[in-house]
Amino acid sequence: MKTIKALPLALLASTAFVAPALAQEQAKNIILLITDGAGPESWSAGTYYRFGALGHEVYDGFDLKAYMATHPLNTSSEPTFSDEGTVTFDPAELWTDTAVDTVYEGALGNYAGYFSGYDYARADYTDSAAAATAIASGQKSYNNSINWSNNGESLRHIGEYVVDSGRALGVVSSVQMSHATPAGFLAHNVSRNDYAAIGAEIVESGLATVVMGAGHPLFDAAGQAVATPSDNAYRYVGGRDVWDRLVAGETAYQLIETKDDFEALANGDLALTGDKVFGLVQNSATLQFNRPGVGLGDWLENSPDLPTMTRAALNVLAADEDGFFLMVEGGAVDWAAHANNLPRLIEEQIDFNMAVEAAAEWVEANSSWEETMIIVTTDHGNGLLQGPLSDTVAYQPIVNQGQGAMPLVRWHSDTHTRELVPVFAHGAGSEYFRSIAAEETGLSRYTTDAASQIWFDNTDIFRGALTAMGIDEVAAQ
């Protein structure tokens, strides 16, 4: 992984991305980047540590900044075949600062309620599977669903629409490639936990041109080789038999595993035997988060970083003259938030932000904003991260301590929330999102300018992407 090195503040004016004015066209390519489990203040934490001030990330120069609702259809873990338990959402409820004496019971311990708005944010939240399903299929479903409806039916996801349109599909993640978010763009299953079936569908369908992630059966979470893996170790790649076929070259994919190969592919120096690549990082869990320790530093040497994987995927997908759809997930921001681990949340968020930079640089060098759209968002909040005095001041922002220093924060949960979360978009078709957004002045709590105090639903990402690419099937949803 790259060393986290912030640019000197004096250089920011000359190095920050500035979005050009756009003449909106149909999108040939779409790059969707999702930082999993990042509430609004999680984004700020990464930027404060990296730059010492807000406003210097590449997406800060994008045409659109808005917010997105993330609630699921219901919080069941299986189809209910009924409307019972359907979740409703009113963003105004988030900002209610009536004092409460409730206690939220988390996995790490108990969290005082403080304000009724916090209780609302912590209730009826989505999991990553339902969130991915909503974004990828345009349909709300129950928690645990991988493109599976509450009526027990398979849902067609955006990857299938994209491939049918003649474009290529790519999916990249910093966690296991059959985990909830990447699975949402590759597979269908009644349960996100059926990793073996999901992994088998990903490999055997050959739907995607590029699949990259962790979940290697022959390595542990510290990146160390395992001499005798159990059968369970193969679940993320579809089981031992699927793995053996993948290694033997009996699937649609060329397998790459080493950091050197990821970097060579990113640099255009790796010879490919076919047109499809399956990149499996030598780690059973994630690129870096699960390594020993809890703080920064001592990174695993055999893991590529997310920007490298993003560039590698783009190099393969760009060979398709008809265009592509690429989803890139920074998956371990969510894992850090579950652990209330601020240093590693910041580390993961910065790695994600650098992947966004890699994508924007690719557009500038190899495409144009008239034919490519980038969307940057998260699937849900996690941890209800706020400032140190947010026990007495509702939604107090985290406190900047300067470049290279941990901001001052307070955690109010150790699991997901239904906060409104940031969305940034730029390029061909991005005007769609502003056209369907609703105003929400309560977003001023995040020191958001008036033009950005707007929101839409996570299912609108699906509709916006297909509309931008001119795929007619969107009308049937």
Automatic annotation (TrEMBL):
<dbReference type="InterPro" id="IPR017850">
    <property type="entry name" value="Alkaline_phosphatase_core_sf"/>
</dbReference>
<keyword id="KW-0378">Hydrolase</keyword>
<feature type="binding site">
    <location>
        <position position="334"/>
    </location>
    <ligand>
        <name>Zn(2+)</name>
    </ligand>
</feature>
<keyword id="KW-0862">Zinc</keyword>
<feature type="binding site">
    <location>
        <position position="329"/>
    </location>
    <ligand>
        <name>Mg(2+)</name>
    </ligand>
</feature>
<dbReference type="GO" id="GO:0004035">
    <property type="term" value="F:alkaline phosphatase activity"/>
</dbReference>
<feature type="binding site">
    <location>
        <position position="379"/>
    </location>
    <ligand>
        <name>Zn(2+)</name>
    </ligand>
</feature>
<feature type="binding site">
    <location>
        <position position="179"/>
    </location>
    <ligand>
        <name>Mg(2+)</name>
    </ligand>
</feature>
<keyword id="KW-0732">Signal</keyword>
<feature type="binding site">
    <location>
        <position position="338"/>
    </location>
    <ligand>
        <name>Zn(2+)</name>
    </ligand>
</feature>
<feature type="signal peptide">
    <location>
        <begin position="1"/>
        <end position="23"/>
    </location>
</feature>
<dbReference type="InterPro" id="IPR001952">
    <property type="entry name" value="Alkaline_phosphatase"/>
</dbReference>
<feature type="binding site">
    <location>
        <position position="181"/>
    </location>
    <ligand>
        <name>Mg(2+)</name>
    </ligand>
</feature>
<comment type="similarity">
    <text>Belongs to the alkaline phosphatase family.</text>
</comment>
<keyword id="KW-0479">Metal-binding</keyword>
<feature type="active site" description="Phosphoserine intermediate">
    <location>
        <position position="128"/>
    </location>
</feature>
<keyword id="KW-0460">Magnesium</keyword>
<protein>
    <submittedName>
        <fullName>Alkaline phosphatase</fullName>
        <ecNumber>3.1.3.1</ecNumber>
    </submittedName>
</protein>
<keyword id="KW-0597">Phosphoprotein</keyword>
<dbReference type="GO" id="GO:0046872">
    <property type="term" value="F:metal ion binding"/>
</dbReference>
<dbReference type="Pfam" id="PF00245">
    <property type="entry name" value="Alk_phosphatase"/>
</dbReference>
<feature type="binding site">
    <location>
        <position position="380"/>
    </location>
    <ligand>
        <name>Zn(2+)</name>
    </ligand>
</feature>
